[in-house]
Design brief:
156 residues; 6 helices; 38% helix; 16% strand
Length: 156
Amino acid sequence: MSTAKTAKTGKGAAKPAEVKARAAKKAALKGTASHSSRKVRTSVSFHRPKTLRLARAPKYPRKSVPHLPRMDQFATIRHPLSTESAMKKIEDHNTLVFIVDLKANKRHIKDAVKKLYDVEAAKVNTLIRPDGQKKAYVRLTADHDALEVANKIGLI
């Protein structure tokens, strides 16, 4: 069988190469992508394709030095209150009363009292007064006396 296929010579052998050449000529003249089909859109709104988003690699830092903390203990506690009701709290409930920064939270106030007056706060209650200032009631632990701390501050 193999001898019968190889026996063909002449015009028959040149035919596949000729067909191939014609196909190449046609592809070169017309182009291969002559029948391009349009994508069927199922939605009326166009959604931009998600492309690669690389992480930033800055050439230099935008800030040379980071700023100091804006809410330190001195900015948190403005001043202690020395009203009659505040004095009653000091004597009866072992509680100090402060006017604090409006942006300070209870954790900030607790840490600031610990740093400034070296006393441990058991709990902190806050309220915003009608004049817009924040008032903090700082209840001290049993091992610290609010009266002594008030004397040290200069309230009494």
